[in-house]
């Protein structure tokens, strides 16, 4: 399982808690990029109590399918469109 970076939520973490506190304190709406393939159920439970937070799908598994030496690409033309759309559909249902 990949480790989430600063823009890839998969778990309820101390860093996420800090972000949620800031969002509440400043009444700032927050869109949180979530990697559906690895998102833990605890993340969904935690976000369910935050009315100003909207989880948004960040690809499917955040895997690079690009050709070596090229820019990273999860959803590019390197794979069949049906496969890419299937993953996006699964991710949409997971959010």
Commentary on this structure:
With 95 residues, the chain is of the alpha+beta class. The chain is 35% helix and 11% strand. It has three helices and two strands; from the N terminus they run H-E-H-E-H. A two-stranded parallel ribbon has the order 1-2. Helix 2 (41-47) links the parallel strand 1 (30-34) and strand 2. The longest helix is centred in the last third of the chain and has 14 residues, at 81-94.
> How big a fraction of the residues is strand?
5-15%
String of helices and strands? HEHEH
Helix content percent band = 25-40%
How are the strands ordered across the major sheet? 1-2
* Distance, first to last CA: 19 Å
Q: Give the overall pLDDT as a whole number.
A: 88
Name some characteristics of this structure:
two-stranded parallel ribbon; 3 helices; 95 residues; 2 strands; alpha+beta
Provide a short characterization of the protein structure.
The protein is built from 3 helices and 2 strands; from the N terminus they run αβαβα.
Give the secondary structure arrangement, pairings included.
Layout: H1 14-25, E1 30-34, H2 41-47, E2 53-57, H3 81-94
């Amino acid at each position: 399982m990949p480790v989430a970076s600063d823009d890839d939520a998969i778990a309820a973490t101390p860093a996420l808690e800090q972000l949620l506190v800031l969002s509440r304190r400043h009444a700032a709406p927050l869109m949180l990029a979530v990697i559906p393939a690895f998102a833990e159920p605890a993340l969904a439970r935690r976000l369910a109590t935050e009315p100003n937070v909207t989880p948004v799908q960040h690809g499917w598994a955040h895997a690079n399918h690009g050709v070596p030496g090229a820019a990273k690409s999860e959803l590019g033309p390197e794979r069949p469109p049906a496969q890419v759309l299937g993953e996006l559909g699964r991710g949409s249902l997971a959010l």
